[in-house]
Amino acid sequence: MMASMSDIEMYCIEARQVYYLFCLVGWSLGEHQEWSKYSNFEVAVRVPMMVYVPWKTCHSDRANRTRFCSKVSKKISFKCYVCTEGKSLGPLINFVTSNKSSDRITLNSTAFSQYLRPSRTPSTNSDEPSYNQTTIMGYSLTTDDFRYTPWVGFNSSTGMCYLGMCMAKNSTSMEV
């Protein structure tokens, strides 16, 4: 279901809630000679994200009510529940809604992503494994210069690392 910010307001959805809309990892459309949903390439994890904070945004200017952001976090005056962690998005929201051009903000230049694999080697369900077929999870940490990905068993209690990869991004433009 698609909903715009005006739809949210029209149906009187709670004005004290933060709306965080994002896209799941999409299909890579031929990048790197592949057609895949679960890819280790950076292009596969660059997805749009919108944040709507009713009490922080200007209701007279629709363009100012949503902001595209690239960092995910937790601190905008709401409770964090299980499986939430990270840096606060609050300072970025405060910055873009302050209208003070003299303000400065420091952003974390590290991005994190994860993707699943059904097995150690390619198989018929490598592109779309079901949840119960997932045996390996890749967790990537990406900076301006490097991307590191450890592949770990999906059962987090084992702690077994299958493979770690560290790529120097400036050495080949074909890998980003």
Description:
This protein has helices at 5-10, 90-98; strands at residues 19-22, 28-29, 35-36, 49-52, 67-68, 111-117, 136-142, 146-153, 161-168. It is mainly beta and 176 residues long. It has two domains: 1-59 and 77-106, no CATH class; 108-167, no CATH class. The longest helix has 9 residues, at 90-98. The chain starts with a helix and ends in an 8-residue tail after the last strand. Keywords: Hydrolase, Metal-binding. It comes from Mizuhopecten yessoensis (Japanese scallop).
Q: Between the first and last Cα atoms, what is the distance in angstroms?
A: 32 Å
Described by the principal axes of the CA atoms, the overall outline is: globular
Domain unit count? 2
Radius of gyration: 19 Å
Main sheet specs: 4 strands, antiparallel
Strand content: 25-35%
Question: If you average the pLDDT, what whole number results?
Answer: 65
Q: Can you count the beta strands?
A: 9
Q: What structural class do helix, strand and pairing data support?
A: mainly beta
Spatial strand sequence of the major β-sheet:
6-7-8-9
Elements, N to C (H/E): HEEEEEHEEEE
What share of the residues lie within helices? under 10%
Low-confidence stretches are 60-83
H/I helix tally: 2
GO cellular component, one term: cytoplasm
Keywords: Hydrolase, Metal-binding
InterPro entries: Alkaline_phosphatase_core_sf
Protein name: Iduronate 2-sulfatase
